[in-house]
Structure formats: C-alpha cells, structure tokens
User: Fold this.
Amino acid sequence: MKTCKKITEGIAKVAEVIVMLAIAAMVAAIVVELIRRNFFNQSFAGNVQLCGILFLWMAFIGLIPLYCNNGLMRLDFLLARARGPLYEVLYFINKLVSLMLGVVMVIAFVYQYPFVSTRTYQTFSVKIPYTIQYVPMMIAGIYMAVKTVEQIVEHILQLTGKLPRDGEEESAA
Assistant:
C-alpha cells in the first residue's frame, strides 16, 4: 500500500510541474501575442488554439494533484457530520462516484479518439492532431480511477484492522 501511495503521490508532483509549465507557457504566449499586436502589428493565427490546448492541459492535469490531496469539491460536509455505518455508506458512495467519473473520462477519450485523431489544427505550420487537447482528460481519468481504487482498498484494510487508521500510527509511535 505504501508503494502505491508513493507512486500516486509522485505522479501528482509531476502533474504539479506540468500545470506550472502550462500556466507559464500560456502567460508567455499571451504576452508575446500582445507585444506582437501592439508594437509590431503582427499576430500568430494559432495563438488562440495554443492557449486553448495549454488551458486544457492545465485544467485536466491540475485535477491530479487536487484529487491526490483531497482538494476537489465533494460532499465532505455530509461525511464530516456522519458517524458509524452512515459514514461508511456515504464514504463508499463518494468513492464510487469518483471512480465512475475517472472511468467516464477514459471512455470519453476512447470514443472521441477516432474523430479527433484524424483532424489537425490548420493554424499551426506543424501538423498537430486534435488529440493533443484530449490526452490530459484521459490521463486525469486514469489517475482518478487508480487513486480511487487505492483509497477504497486502503479504507477496507483499515476497516478490517489490517492497516492502522489515519492518526493511529502516530499515536502508537
């Protein structure tokens, strides 16, 4: 379990770097475009598409560190007030919904792939397929599904006593 957690946390750290690079590239693209337009009366036709691609990478890959650190908006206010069996039922419903979301994101990519893989951006001189903007959705979906399975397994192991609950290992030390 520790190895799995280290791997998913490592992936989340890499995702943070990708998000920071996407934000920096988007800012740079916008600033360069503003300078070109205002001072040189020129424009890069693909700038809107480039910013759109960078935004989608930032948004979808940004889900990874958020999900890893429980930063996504969820129905935690219900979980915080629930106790006993009701808590467990709500916890597993929450995790199953997260698992379904991840799986649906992957399925959406698979169904879109035949259509987006054959089209390319006309504004770029290099042929870049539309797939580039859908890949981060698939990556985030796979991560959410894997991380949710990890969380469910960990919770079941904690319920059965095979793993200490959060906070118990510190108090035992």
Summary: The helical segments are 2-40, 47-68, 76-81, 84-116, 135-159, 168-172. The chain is about 75% helix and 0% strand.
